[in-house]
Amino acid sequence: MRSVLLLAGLVAVSAFGPASAHDSATEAEQVEIVKSLADAGCTAKPEDMVEHDGGFEVLEAACTDGIYFLVLDGSFAITKKIKL
After folding, report:
1. N or C of the chain: less Cβ packing under 10 Å?
2. Tell me, what's the pLDDT at 61?
3. Residue 46 — φ and ψ, nearest 5°?
């Protein structure tokens, strides 16, 4: 049974890709993301800034009122803020 579950997990990963399939934001993009985060009272580590669907995601941003998952559009404007 255990081998069947392991095989099912491997099939799921290969079908959908690994959970961290996003590319890291470039250094130039990170500079712009940092500016947007600072305007919102937030900071984040570079490794938490990833490209996604023509924009960016910040996986864990430390903001004045907690930790958030953020979505930014292609012009670096924050479009979604989800408290973790």
Report:
1. N
2. 98
3. -55, -35
Asked if 58 and 33 touch (Cβ cutoff 8 Å), the reply is: yes
Please choose, from the candidates 53, 46, 55, the residue with its C-alpha nearest in 3D space to the C-alpha of residue 24.
46
The beta strand positions in 1-84, using DSSP E, are 42-43, 49-52, 55-63, 66-72, 78-83
Is the confidence at residue 9, as pLDDT, over 70?
no
Give dist(CA 43, CA 62) in Å, integer: 5
Q: For 24, which DSSP code? A: B
Contacts of residue 76, Cβ cutoff 8 Å, sequence gap at least 6: 32, 33, 35, 36, 56
User: Can you tell me whether residue 27 is helix, strand or coil?
Assistant: helix
Q: State pTM to two decimals.
A: 0.73
